[in-house]
Amino acid sequence: MYTSSSPTTLSAAIALICRDPAWWWKCLLHGALAMTIIGLPLAVGFIMESYDNSRRGFPIPLPPWRDWTLRAITGILALLIDLAFFVLPLMIGILVLVCSGLTLVLAAQTQLLEPVMRGILSLIGLLWGSLFLIGVAPIGRLIFAEEGRIEQALSLDTVRRALTPPYRTYFWRARLTSLAAYLPAGLLAVLMWGLMVLNAPLPLIILDGWFLCSAGVFAQLVGAQLYVAAERQAQLMTRA
After folding, report:
1. Residue 218 is part of which domain span?
2. Is residue 231, in this structure, part of any structural domain at all?
3. Which SS3 state, helix, strand or coil, does residue 119 take?
4. pTM over 0.85
């Protein structure tokens, strides 16, 4: 079930999240959890609940604190989506890079080492960038929220849905729009880098890291609204 007022613009999605009077402390709480690494599954589980509630037509209020065990398990499964589509291809690419380099060195073909390494690195970057731009992670989370089956979210169905019309157009628009929501997190990341370069006091760096993680949680909540709306629009086009 979807609400008829599903936000399709960045400002509408932000306004919807901010309609929950407790949005700021929920973001700060889950940002603090994400910062500890151990608590990251709880933060991701919170975002997954927002996906699920929004798909059912109840985006607000944001999910309350309840059943943290189930939330942590959901978060761990959702993190597998990021692992499968981003970390795993990167690890495979690095393995191919190392094996190719060793092969060329052992074969005394060192003159080919630089162009082959450059080519492999370019392919890794192209694949990683393509997966990021088509938004496989949020689309995989949508499938997980819809079907409740992590194996389907981890399959090529996620990539297929990202590239199939009319989903492709709406998901691409949601991806480009959602990137703007990460601007505060990006600025805080630059600030953290500057603080570390200047050897700022550790508490100040930790505080910036907390705000950075909290801004990341907020950006993903906004992205969830945009992707749910994109899925709704695509389904309406399919039925038309």
Report:
1. 10-239
2. yes
3. helix
4. yes
